[in-house]
Amino acid sequence: MKSAVIVFPGSNREGDAWQALAEVTGSAPQLVWHRDSELPKVDLVVVPGGFSYGDYLRCGAIAAHSPIMREVKARAGKGVAVLGICNGFQILTEAGLLPGALLRNAALKFVCRNVNLKVENSQTMFTGGYEQGQVLSVPIAHHDGNYHADAATLDKLEQSGRVAFRYCEANGAVTAAGNPNGSARNIAGIFNETKTVLGLMPHPENAIDILLGSVDGRGLFRSLAEALS
Amino acid sequence: MTAFATTASITPNIVAEHGLTADEYQSILKIMGRAPNLTELGIFSVMWSEHCSYKSSRRWLKRLPTEGPVVIQGPGENAGVIDIGDGQAVVFKMESHNHPSFIEPYQGAATGVGGIMRDVFTMGARPIANLNALRFGSPADPKTRHLVAGVVAGIGGYGNCMGVPTVGGEVNFHPSYNGNILVNAMTVGLAQADKIFYSKAAGVGNPVIYVGAKTGRDGIHGATMASAEFNEDSEEKRPTVQVGDPFTEKLLLEACLELMATDAIVSIQDMGAAGLTSSSVEMSSKGGLGIEFDLDKVPVRETGMTAYEIMLSESQERMLMVLKPEAMEKARAIFEKWELDFAVIGRLTDTGRLVLKKDGKVQADMPVEPLVSEAPVYDRPTAATPAQAPVAASALPAIEPLAALKTLLACPDLASKRWIWEQYDHLVMGRTLQRPGGDAAVVRLPDSKKGLAVSTDCTPRYCFADPKMGGAQAVAESWRNLTAVGATPLALTDNMNFGNPQRPEIMGQFAGCVEGMREACLALDYPVVSGNVSLYNETNGKGILPTPAIGGVGLLQNADHSVSLKFKAEGDAIILLGA
Amino acid sequence: MKARVHITLKSGVLDPQGRAIQHALGVMGFAGVEDVRQGKYIEIELKETDRAKAKANLDAMCQKLLANTVIENYAIDFAD
Amino acid sequence: MKARVHITLKSGVLDPQGRAIQHALGVMGFAGVEDVRQGKYIEIELKETDRAKAKANLDAMCQKLLANTVIENYAIDFAD
Ligand SMILES: Nc1ncnc2c1ncn2[C@@H]1O[C@H](COP(=O)(O)OP(=O)(O)O)[C@@H](O)[C@H]1O
Q: Which E.C. number(s) belong to this protein (chain A) (predicted)?
């Protein structure tokens, strides 16, 4: 599997994503600077976490309009897999590749800790390595991860298996107590219609080493490597 | 010859407003051989402020042990540097932003974090961990809540955006900090031992370059403010506080590290408190050279800025560099790539003088060396802290143990600080082996088994009761916290926060803490490689508890073997060690 | 020409910041605060001197960047 | 009664957001944008019916909470 990680001014988890991809899939991704309008021929594009353009105006808004994103959109249109993590998820919604928006966390504070995630659809190239309903422990680190979409959009996402992950409690119960940021229906990650684009707030790339707290993020990268090789 | 700019004559009032004494002004007259103009006076006032000159503390700081086999660079540069083997070096320092954080907690704390990170990456290191040491007033004081919220949000706001994990810190509450909170921030960076960058300028004729953000009228009185005691109306005066832009700093970090990977830089210095003044004087004095600026070339974001304002501005996210002339275009390309301002604003001279030109006039012309070497040094009187009468255990009322435990657990100093560190991204970079909440945090080094343990420590009430014991205890606690996670302590940085040094009892606390720190450092082979002093933490004549915050760094050869404090399994034996 | 853009959350979109302000005002003893909504206010200085052209331009800026029309409304007016 | 509060940065205070927006507009091809400053806009619904009293109350709210008067100015007006 060949992959690329986009670097915007202000990206800061591109190294983490690089590390996870290299370590879990065995092939190191290419880092692509945002001003390069050429995207290399790859099977997967990762839009990493960080504070692109300082997250000024709205998180991800300015990055969504950068030249490289035109190229990413074009590739996504051709079915190339795109993964947006945290700020990357925000950028993908701002760019219109995924529906909805990410608002300020309900408690208004930045929150960094491990959360429990329930795998809602294990039948995709991103999640094939997980069991349906499996509960993962993965860190979050964001200020604006409160997923919002109107009721009709949310219904549509749910009916078409486009909810990838939900925040839950350790036993898998999807409750308000398990929701760290106020996201609608506890949604932590969603797919596009063809399930070739995934955006999620949690950081699977920071859950690949048991000494750092969890290896539950490896499954996502392994799934991709298997599906795309 | 260019005309010389004169300004309104300097009155005793103006001298006093610049925080200079009549004696200090007499020295200035002697050095200059004439009356200074306002710009020149401003430059003296900054360089001779407590913050830049350490005039009250220098005599005592010399007592601290600063040498050892691992020390590559001790105090005196932007940050301390130690050798951790394999060609790697660790660069670290702690710095205070107390007064600005009291006036505007979010921006004050944020720019404090920004400043200390610049100190570390200026030396060629990539920051890999941030810590802090915070003291607030009584939790019952309504203002405390506002200050805590703002400071914590500001530290997170800046550090999170920079993508540097904030992995540890400490927080105390005590009424003595009601009007003088302490915000001490520490950054630890990793560099190649043979690629450390210093501030000493060299090469007559070499261009001096300004990079980063534009200069505005931010915090023009900041450096003098940081050295002046608070009184009732300082809140009213509301000096322009600096606003931080972590996004620009992130670009500056990446651009500087990219340039440092080439062979372009002769010397580099960040513009911290007292901005262009202290950076240029420091660079040129260390190199024994002069420097000449064309201030019309300085990138500004406001119109009509005077030489005085440009020299004293504390706008953030700026750097001054001396480049090899042949590397200019390479450097310019890098800064353009990162969309940062890049301007040649002057050159090095052999005159030993700082000469500032603007609007076709010479705005200042003064010798560099005396700005540093003739800065006042005071041997202020000290009064020893009287020994406390021992408290006999029998004299204390009997307490029900469970109730006592509950009281302790509910005490704000001991209660969990999870709600604070969860607002900091402590995981970015993906190498945080021991998260906040333990004795020390541990971060793994990239592509290596090695790891660093880091911690900040001080117990101000011990220092208040017995400065010498308290100073020694803070160092010992730091050492213990590092060893407790499995690290070998290597060196420390400190942040000496005290009241008004002109009061003998405060100076006595300072001297006592230093002596205690010295003894502990010598006993433990634990040298001080950098530090910062913040004095005049007083409101209406009442000082804070003496607070010498210690930031310790230790090394683990195999960080995967670091240990945490939690009990791991039922049935495990519990062993109590030590005295 | 100086334009002013107000960006507000659509009704129906939860406003955690507004709610937090309302709550804080209550705690601070300000009574009778029935609702608070927080939005953005952007001042834009334009070279354009033709108001109609400026308006069309600003509309495009709002649609494309300044507002996220999934969750926000915007309004444009001129200062002079 | 509905009040509107505009909170803007004092002149001379760095506005990183405004700068980033201006820059982004330029990159996106919007020409002639000479300056952008970003502020906050807060709508407050009050029970109070007396305008003078409401104004005094809002002044206090701005001073104590809504604006950071070290770096921000505020302006209050009424929607109806
Ligand atoms: N301001 C802070 N920022 C980050 N971590 C903090 C902060 N304050 C306390 N902590 C963390 O909380 C834990 C307990 O702190 P402290 O009570 O000072 O520990 P100890 O006294 O055992 O050294 C430590 O891991 C420390 O790093």
A: 6.3.5.3, 3.5.1.2
